[in-house]
C-alpha cells in the first residue's frame, strides 16, 4: 500500500522524481520504516512463542493485551529512527557526461543514495536488519524444538487402578478400594503440543519467506554500491532492482496468506473482524451490536 504508489510515479515519470520538497527522503523513509517494522514484528512473534513454550510459568504472565500493544508501539518507534537515517541520504541526483553524480533541482533528477561521511551504511543495515534477526530467530527455534522434544519424550499418563477388598470384621461387610498408580508413557503428543508445533511451522514458513525475499535485496544494494558505473552496463545488475523490489512485495503478500492457511485462530478472528466491519447486527433496541472478537488472537 505504501510502496506501490511511489513505484507507479517512478514508472510514469521514467524514474524522474516530481518537483516536491523532500520527496526522495520521505519515499525512502516510508518504505524502510515498513520494512524494518515487519522484521521486528516477526522477531517479536518468535520471541512470544519462545516464552510461551520454554517459560510458560515464569514469563507467560507478562504477555497481557496491554503489553502487546506497548510492544507494537515500541517496534514502530524503534524502526523509525534507522529509517530516517537511511531516508535522509536519498536525494534527487543526475549523472553528467563523465559519469559523476550531482545534486540537481527538484523535478530534474531521480532519487538515489548519495551517502554521508560514513562509508559502511549498507553493511550496518545488513547486520541490523538481516543477519542479527535471522540469528535471533534461529536461536529461538532451536530452543523451542528442544523444549517440545523434551516435553514429548518425558510425558507420562497416570492411570488409577482400584483394588477392591472386603472387610468381614464389621457387622455389615464393606468394600475398601486401594488405588494404585500406573505410569505409562504417552505414545503421541498432547493436543496442546500439536497446536504449538502448528504455530512453529507457521513461524518457520514466514521466516523462510523473509530470508528468501530479503537476502537478494541486501545483496543488490551492496553490488550497486561497490560496482558503481560497471553495474549500469550489466543486464543482470539492471534486473536486480525490479526483481528484489518484486520479492519484497511477494513477502508482504504471502504473510497474511500463510497466517490464514496455517492458523485456525487467525482465520476465525479474521472472519469475526470482517463480520464486525461489514455485517453489523441489529438489536431489539435499534442499536448496532457488532460481533465480538476474542482477545487471545
From TrEMBL:
Keywords: G-protein coupled receptor, Membrane, Receptor, Transducer, Transmembrane, Transmembrane helix. It comes from the Eukaryota. The chain crosses the membrane at residues 20-47, 68-88, 118-142, 198-219, 239-262. The keyword Acetylation does not apply. Gene3D superfamilies: Rhodopsin 7-helix transmembrane proteins. It is a multi-pass membrane protein. PROSITE patterns: G_PROTEIN_RECEP_F1_2 (PS50262). This is G-protein coupled receptors family 1 profile domain-containing protein. The lineage of its organism: Eukaryota, Metazoa, Ecdysozoa, Nematoda, Chromadorea.
